[in-house]
Amino acid sequence: MECTVRWHDGMSFIAETGSGHMVAMDGAPEAGGRNLAPRPMELLLAGTGGCTSFDIVMILKKGRQDVTGCEVNLSAERAAEDPKVFTRINMHFVVSGRGLKPEAVERAVKLSAEKYCSASIMLGKTAEMSHSWEVIEA
């Protein structure tokens, strides 16, 4: 996996991923940024949500569950002092589908958290991770 990050101007940076996609990042105004794009740590949190959601949908589909939607709401706390690593991350999953078995959703969340999601397992080295979920009938 590769990525190149280039300084654009002010405190704005453009990342070009190995798959050829571009992502803009910017700093807060008090840090010299113009607030035109997400902060790098926000992208880290978003990437973690994408990683774990991908796992959950894939696990449910492989388990022949009729999943029609998956949303994860992440809330994180950071250390007050540098390095301001994440210290707590909560993930709340809202999974919708037709006739979804709650135990299948619970299993998918657990497998992602403990075995498959590289991003959340990596962040779990510095942050206390918690997970909750709910099932909505589609």
From TrEMBL:
Pfam families: OsmC. Gene3D superfamilies: 2.20.25.10, 3.30.300.20. This is Putative redox protein. It comes from Sulfurisoma sediminicola.
